[in-house]
Design goal:
heterotetramer, A: alpha/beta, Rossmann fold, five-stranded parallel beta sheet, two-stranded antiparallel ribbon, 14 helices, 7 strands, B: Rossmann fold, 2 domains, five-stranded mixed beta sheet, four-stranded mixed beta sheet, 12 helices, 33% helix, binds thiamine diphosphate, binds magnesium ion
């Protein structure tokens, strides 16, 4: 297997503290969003509890001034770390606008994807575009390319599109990082009944793609591994697969009932140590944080959550006219007529 | 662990024996009725299989397959990896091996990755093999909107399935129909797409096991004299509501539940509209090239001489199905149906 | 060998400079006209790309991309691995990176594996991103039957594309239109499906580079007074032949080349049929839920008061496109079109 | 890589002679079919020159009384070896009936598939059916399952369906053999721009699937390798991938012009020794055949070709009514009406 090795040089404490603080925000917001759903603020939500290290750590390896992120529906933590406004992010769960209200071009984060595996080929195409740009500009080797990082789950690894994406990325040597969060489950189906052979990273080998297996609950390792993958891709050496082993500690979504397919005892056994606890204890032990710091970070996260909640609650439904407005750049006449008829009938009511 | 080896059913052997036929009447929600139909299809024919994402232990995201794996074992009711083309392609192969697979696609909008297997393989295998390898596959999927789902969880795909030669397409509008139409579909030697109106899953209704009624063709859900509303799936109950509202204005509206979207029961359309001389077709899919066009044209072909006005279409707009907060703007509501009725009534030849 | 690195174009740099505008008139076959349009699109916009299976060195199985890789280099005109979902998904990503991809699907019937990317991604990305990530993609494919191809090389998919909100669809019927409509499509900021009537590839015709004519909406291919034939793609020339045959019986038939199958030019339909008061729609796709239903219903909606007979459809049958030796039984031929005309003329209100 | 080892025990001379004789028939028929196309007997044809050893050898490893073959459009040699009537086979190229006129159930050969990658999942589903049959019958381990063998090309390896099929086969441990003929080309695209990583067999490893690389031009090696793969699958141990390295010596199809993408010199270099010549020389050298035997085998092949040609030439178009008849097992009323209208209009003409 074409395993990419990566430096184990420790991250500076300050950086780890920054990551911990971001992860704390993410954890608190995630927990709150579930509560919001129960309170009727959101119609639904896809919790990512337990995947904070994988998501925040992977984005930390990117240069968001030029790289591009392709998330699924479970990347709240990645979106937050990438700088997406969380009110605009939550718009998808508020049922305000599918994909979210954030500007995908400005944020360099594509809209929330509901189609499993749907974004991987986009990350290949976008990355190939960076290669073409560099070629047109006559850039020298080693290249210094913007990188596309696409998230996928263990379940997504079964989709044909993922295979086509990895093969295309391999053939065109695109600067694409396939970041797999293997969280043990695809709704109710465990990885061992999903991923023949047991490893998504191993698939990479079949395409001659560099790959890395990493503990997705160790944020430092995730940063290091993703940095290595990104550096590989950035230099023009081709794509990379990072498989971050983690665990979906919560339900698949707020309408899921995991008790139907796994017991609490299994959850405890398979989930292992909570990545939040592990990092906090480690930083406390190392003296990088004090208990007061932790409390302060927690309060900040709470204040942040309140601001986001206010934004989400303030969000009204979008004007119905937008249904028509955004279908095309150039709206065709029959659609204009439908919009007019819709307006007339709505006004009457 | 060998995945290939089945976990033994809780109630071992149950799958091999036909249970006492259900008799009499009962009240069930639609998802319970479908569950009962799947149960009985599995019990009746040992070569019937249920497969799909999360249909096993979880019992499906809408609990439609609840309890079936426990009853019939993981060889007959099984979870697949997350790949819709895989699910349908595997079903085609199982049909070649003499099985009757009942695959589930978890949501309407995730049928798109499987369209190639459905259209180029399943729909054509009987034709290609001159009948040697028929495809007795019943493809189920939760369909249509109405429950504020995420993107691509509210698609209406009957326009697509109905065009494809080799497929048949049916959508029930009540628990009774859901039970009997699924039993009927699962006994057919041809592939049938069975579209479950997800917004009606929890709606209860009486199921009569002894009197299935006619299972082919359309069904008059409400008889009337002045105008015919044609609908299917979740729009049937909405049309019934619209008909009630119209009745307050003294208008006697017939509601024709099309049920079979392929083949379409043109005789029933003609019978109804020769009587009422006016029709409105209602569906959730976008208007352009939606099935409403076909239904309208069939009506026009058969009833041109008696029609008082062109058939009116009240449908989704030519836009992607929007997010939940806009869904009521998109899906035909009672007001829009009443406006459609009004346009037909007020029509004057130019 | 690094695949990622382009082989240098024979005529290096040509892709960066706009060649002298083509002027005047010339005679070209349709595949030459499309080739010229691709050439000029590549020359005009350095961010235009051509990709697909065998479009590079081979120049496409129909030679439509002949010479383009040699001229513009393998970075701008390139072969992909054999995967249609991959081709369209990659095109979506390239569009996000500011390119204007012109992907080719090698044959109509191999679009099915790419439907998910086309419908759930390309068609909806502008909507999903509220205009932030538009998809200026021109998807080309040889379409329709008529050349005795193997299975799945003769599909008519306009019924599918036309229903999908977010896509536009066009099909040329002559070399002149082929050139100009493709140039036009390739300059649009929205995704356009460009359906090439493969049976017309070798048909020569005059191309006027100076006078594109109106490029939106339908085109009156033959003016007439008694009845309108509505068609697109390869059926336009067949309808023109039918019109000639009908003229021998003193019938003055108008032929409306719809060209744009989404959006459909309802005004042009209304204008023609208000005059002729009779219409026959002709297409190769199966009848049920084919685009003929939409066209017929649009005509009926607009011209109900003046129509002398229901719109007649002369189409493929509701069967899979059959093998070459049966293709003439399947594709509407002149006789079947004339029968259709006759039915409209002989129609008497029941 | 999970490589399956296979016995190198030599095949008996008699068996090799039988294979040579079958290959000679195949070669002669293939060459003739190209000529038939030029003569207007067939509208088109997909030559398989150079792949005789791979096709005939792989079928020789099967038990056609219970196994099932899933061909593409280039498996004339496999179909012949499996016992398909060649007149009925050629019906697809004659444009008589798409997929061929042979009975897929009787012959245990699915109809000719034009969709690249379209049959792989069928071979998984069919094979899973054999497993279910065995389970229902309470069969003992090791199992003795009927096996599905599906053909695919190097180009087909790029399709998402192939990936889904291999993953499903791995997860359900189905008795499926993926027989890849890597003939160097997918129309004009060479394997190195098609198959990232360079090896289709290597893909198998990513799914935990046993795989074998074999010289596809050496019929003996093909038989041995495929027997090993089939035995593995038959025993219930799961699927296997066989990648047979060969060369498409002819054009992609009778409408292809390989001169546009490869030179004659390249063809000579890459094609290597013709597998027919290699086997003949070897059998002559070993004394298993005499020059007279070779001539007799050739005459037989010529006689066979004449019979097939007569069948093909005698084949008229099918009655148009069959267009309607075979769409469904239960014909719906509107289709019956269309058939009636069609008949009426055809009769008038
Ligand atoms: C194409 C498609 N099929 C099915 C679904 C329904 N679905 C949503 S999430 C999910 C499981 C995904 O599992 P995985 O890829 O492991 O990601 P995770 O949910 O664990 O983050 C399924 C089956 C979908 N959204 N898209
Ligand atoms: C889904 C699909 N896409 C494209 C084609 C057109 N096509 C026919 S054969 C072929 C190349 C196949 O290459 P390979 O799999 O290596 O098989 P070979 O032709 O070499 O036997 C292509 C692109 C097709 N038949 N099906
Ligand atoms: Mg998962
Ligand atoms: Mg090949």
């Amino acid at each position: 297997m074409n395993t990419l090795s990566y430096g184990r040089a420790a991250l500076p404490d300050a950086e780890l503290v920054r990551l911990f603080s971001q992860m704390t925000q993410v954890r608190h917001l995630d927990t709150s969003a579930i509560a919001w759903q129960r309170q009727g603020i959101l119609p639904g939500y896809a919790p990512m509890r337990g995947q904070e290290a994988a998501q925040v750590g992977s984005v930390a390896a990117l240069d968001m001034s030029r790289d591009f992120v392709f998330p699924t529906y479970r990347e709240m933590g990645a979106a937050l770390a990438a700088g997406v406004d969380m009110g605009e992010y939550m718009a998808t769960h508020k049922a305000t606008w599918n994909g979210g209200m954030y500007d995908a071009r400005e944020t360099r984060v594509t809209p929330i994807q509901t189609v499993i595996g749907g974004s991987a080929l986009h990350a290949v195409g976008w990355a190939h575009g960076q290669r073409l740009d560099a070629a047109a500009a006559g850039a020298d080797e080693p290249l210094d390319l913007p990188v596309a990082l696409v998230y996928l789950g263990d379940g997504a690894s079964s989709q044909g599109d993922i295979h086509e994406a990895m093969n295309f990325a391999g053939v065109f040597e695109t600067p694409t990082v396939f970041f797999v969060q293997n969280n043990g489950w695809a709704i109710s189906v465990p990885t061992e009944r999903q991923v023949a052979g047991g490893s998504v990273a191993a698939r990479g080998a079949g395409y001659g793609i560099a790959s890395i297996h990493v503990d997705g609950n160790d944020v430092e390792a995730v940063v290091q591994a993703t940095r290595a993958a990104v550096a590989h891709a950035r230099s023009g050496a081709g794509p990379a697969v990072v498989e971050a082993m983690t665990y979906r500690r919560g339900p698949h979504s707020t309408s899921d009932d995991p008790g139907r397919y796994r017991s609490l005892a299994e959850e405890r056994r398979d989930g292992g140590v909570d990545p939040m606890d592990a990092l906090r204890d480690r930083l406390l032990e190392a003296g990088a944080l004090t208990a007061e710091d932790v409390a302060a970070i927690q309060s900040e996260a709470e204040a942040f959550e309140e601001r986001v909640r206010a934004d989400v609650q303030a969000q009204g439904p979008r004007p119905g006219a937008e249904m028509f407005e955004y279908v095309y750049q150039e709206m065709p006449a029959p659609l204009r007529e439908q919009a007019a008829a819709w307006r007339e009938e709505s006004d009457h009511v | 662990m060998s995945n290939a080896v089945a976990t033994p059913p809780v109630d071992a052997g149950a799958g091999r024996t036909v249970p006492a036929e259900r008799t009499g009447r009962t009240t069930l929600s639609m998802n319970q009725a479908i569950n009962a139909a799947l149960h009985d299809a599995l019990a009746e024919n040992p070569r019937t299989l249920v497969l799909g994402e999360d249909v096993g232990r979880l019992g499906g995201v809408f609990r439609v397959t609840d309890g079936l794996q426990a009853k019939f074992g993981a060889d007959r009711v099984f979870d697949t990896p997350l790949a819709e083309s895989g699910i349908l392609g595997m079903s085609a192969g199982l049909a070649m091996a003499g099985y009757h697979p009942i695959p589930e696609v978890q949501f309407d909008g995730f049928t798109y990755p499987a369209i190639n297997q459905l259209v180029t393989q399943i729909a054509r295998m009987n034709f290609r093999t001159r009948g040697a390898l028929p495809m007795p596959i019943t493809l189920r999927m939760p369909s249509f909107g109405g429950i504020q789902s995420p993107e691509l969880h509210s698609e209406s795909l009957e326009w697509l399935f109905a065009h494809v030669a080799g497929l048949k397409v049916v959508s029930p509008s009540s628990p009774h129909q859901a039970y009997h139409l699924l039993r009927h579909a699962a006994q057919r030697p041809d592939p049938v797409v069975y579209m479950e109106p997800k917004s009606r899953y929890w709606q209860k209704g009486r199921v009569d096991f002894d009197e299935p009624g006619n299972l082919e063709g359309a069904h008059v859900a409400r008889a009337g004299r002045h105008l015919t509303l044609v609908a299917w799936g979740a729009m049937v109950s909405r049309c019934l509501q619209a008909a009630e509202a119209a009745a307050e204005d003294g208008l006697d509206v017939e509601v024709l539940d099309l049920r079979w979207l392929s083949p379409i029961d043109a005789d029933a359309l003609a019978a109804s509209i020769s009587k009422t001389r006016r029709a409105v077709v209602v569906h959730e899919a976008p208007k352009t090239a939606g099935l409403g066009a076909e239904v309208s044209q069939l009506i026009t072909e058969r009833c041109f001489g008696t029609l008082k006005a062109p058939v009116e279409r009240v449908t989704g707009f030519d836009v992607p199905f929007p997010s939940g907060s806009l869904e009521n703007e998109y899906i035909p509501n009672i007001d829009r149906i009443l406006y459609g009725i009004q346009r037909v009534l007020e029509y004057r030849r130019g």
